[in-house]
């Protein structure tokens, strides 16, 4: 067997940096953000993960909540890529990772179908799985479109109050620009509260004025409240139409708010809960 040596011109070009040599694909990956982790698995690259954050349902080392990270445990894992949701932080930690020569790719954190497509494409590019990312993004778009076709026939869009958490104080309600507002809209509902962005404590007066027909909560919130019945019996909610009709929708938190590769499933599940009449008619 005869080995071909590179030409003198090719060798000269490499030495001068005129020709780039492709870097090897990342094999030790840290994912920060439950949606980011789900995308990695959906692209068939879960075997590359060495750690995740607390929002991911994966049997891997837990680096804590992705908004309150520390650089040292991540650096100690010697990753060759950190896929970080744009909501990851604090920012100084990401700066420390880059200073330690750890490659960091920021994954967009926008809600909506276009936002999920952007997330998938960003992760696919970073993992060199572009073709798989294109296929996954197209499937998500098809699934969401099918779910929205069903609710497009609904004559009524119920007023939905999303409650993020409950504690000793007033519950936190999801306002404009939140993932909660986006998923409610996709599923054929109307956000019961507005006039503010993000999450805000909900007073009894504000809850009564919002007149929600449905209360929507992540599973961890329902559990912390003592169950759906106990949630509706809170003073802020007991005089609402939702309490009178005993309408609480409880969903997996990451599925509901993650806006990851399971978005179609999330929209379909919430749409069926908000529009039981369409489900009964077999639509």
* Top-tier CATH class of the largest domain: Alpha Beta
Query: How many strands in all?
Result: 10
Mean pLDDT: 91
Separation, N- and C-terminal Cα atoms? 66 Å
Query: pLDDT under 50 segments (min length 5)?
Result: 18-22
Task: Indicate the CATH topology of the largest domain.
Answer: Rossmann fold
CATH-defined architecture of the largest domain: 3-Layer(aba) Sandwich
Order of strands across the main sheet:
2-1-3-4
Largest sheet: 4 strands, parallel
- Derived from helix and strand composition plus strand pairing, the structural class reads alpha/beta
* Estimated radius of gyration: 23 Å
What would CATH call the homologous superfamily of the largest domain? Nitrogenase molybdenum iron protein domain
Provide the β-strand percentage band.
Answer: 5-15%
What percentage of residues falls in helices of 4 or more residues? 40-55%
Task: Summarize the structure in words.
With 283 residues, this protein is α/β, with parallel strands linked by helices. The chain folds into two domains: 120 residues, Nitrogenase molybdenum iron protein domain (Rossmann fold, 3-Layer(aba) Sandwich), CATH 3.40.50.1980; 126 residues, 3-Layer(aba) Sandwich (Rossmann fold), CATH 3.40.50. Helices cover 43% and strands 13% of the residues. It contains 14 helices and ten strands. The chain is globular. About 2% of the residues have low confidence.
């Amino acid at each position: 067997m005869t080995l071909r040596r590179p030409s003198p011109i090719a060798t000269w070009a490499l030495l001068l940096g005129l020709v780039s040599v492709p870097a090897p694909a990342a094999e030790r990956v840290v994912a920060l953000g439950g949606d980011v982790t789900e995308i990695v698995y959906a692209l068939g690259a879960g075997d590359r993960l060495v750690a995740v954050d607390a929002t991911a349902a994966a049997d891997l080392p837990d680096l804590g909540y992705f908004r309150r990270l520390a650089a040292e445990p991540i650096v100690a894992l010697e990753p060759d890529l950190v896929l970080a949701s744009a909501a990851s932080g604090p920012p100084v930690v990401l700066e420390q990772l880059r200073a330690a020569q750890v490659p960091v790719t920021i994954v967009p954190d926008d809600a909506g179908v276009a936002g999920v497509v952007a997330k998938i494409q960003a992760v696919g590019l970073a993992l060199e799985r572009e073709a798989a990312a294109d296929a996954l993004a197209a499937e998500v778009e098809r699934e969401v479109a099918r779910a929205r076709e069903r609710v497009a026939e609904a004559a009524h869009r119920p007023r939905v109050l999303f409650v993020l958490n409950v504690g000793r104080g007033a519950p936190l309600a999801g306002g404009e620009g939140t993932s909660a507002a986006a998923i409610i809209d996709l599923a054929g509902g109307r956000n019961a509260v507005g006039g503010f962005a993000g999450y805000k404590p909900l007073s009894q007066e504000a809850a009564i004025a919002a007149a929600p027909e449905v209360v929507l909560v992540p599973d961890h919130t329902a559990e912390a409240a003592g169950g759906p019945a106990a949630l509706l019996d809170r003073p802020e909610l007991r005089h609402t139409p939702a309490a009178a009709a005993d309408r609480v929708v409880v969903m997996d938190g990451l599925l509901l708010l993650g806006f990851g590769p399971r978005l179609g499933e999330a929209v379909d599940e919430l749409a069926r809960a908000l529009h039981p009449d369409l489900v009964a008619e077999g639509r």
